Amino acid sequence: MPKVGMPKIRKPQLVKATMAVIGKVGLHSASIALISREAGVSTGIINHYFGGKQGLLEETMRVILRQHSHTVKTALKALPADAHQQRINAIINANFAGFQTQSEVTKTWLAFWSYSMHDDQLKRLQRVNEKRLISHLRLELKSLLPMDKANLVAVGIAALIDGMWLRGALTPDGINAQAAQIIINDYLELQLKKHQN
């Protein structure tokens, strides 16, 4: 029987190990044996806490999504509610900040993107994340643009964020957060000028 309080230690340890193993061998080869070895625990612990590999993968994605959501919300809380363009910039920048840009996290994101096409639960989590991003952007953009244009620009920004992530995850140097922020914020500026005139 696990000791009281151990889930608070073991679960994050196993999630971190999952990301490390996915970064080394990919999602398909990330076995329970490799993950438990990386975490320094028995394979039975994964089954106990997560019900197997699938449960651990889902929890890993949820952890990444929660951290990402926290980063975005923290950035938005620091700004006045009526500073719409600054808030959009903050949403963009939060997608390329801290935890989200760590090599193991980007590799895990990329693996989940690919795998979610064939897994209903991971697909649902990915859609929640996508809808949240577009919703945050649309909320701010509709104060600056007509609604149809706000929708279009929100989707454009989300596509650029995904594209910069994909390119960064596939290059040895990883995501260039500064370049991504400049490119996407430049697109935003151009769209605001185009549609506000």
The portion of residues assigned to helices is over 70%
Question: Which word captures the global form?
Answer: elongated
- Identify the CATH homologous superfamily of one domain: Tetracycline Repressor, domain 2
Question: What's the SSE pattern?
Answer: HHHHHHHHH
Supply the number of helical segments. Answer: 9
Mean model confidence by pLDDT: 90
CATH class of one domain: Mainly Alpha
Low-pLDDT stretches are none
Task: Just name the CATH architecture of one domain.
Answer: Orthogonal Bundle
Distance between the termini: 67 Å
Please provide the count of β strands. Answer: 0
Q: CATH fold name of one domain, please?
A: Tetracycline Repressor, domain 2
Radius of gyration: 19 Å
Give me the oligomer status.
single chain
Share in β-strands: under 5%
Decide which structural class fits the backbone: mainly alpha
Main sheet attributes: strand count, strand direction, barrel closure: none
Give a brief outline of the structure.
This protein has about 200 residues and is mainly alpha-helical. Helices cover about 75% and strands about 0% of the residues.
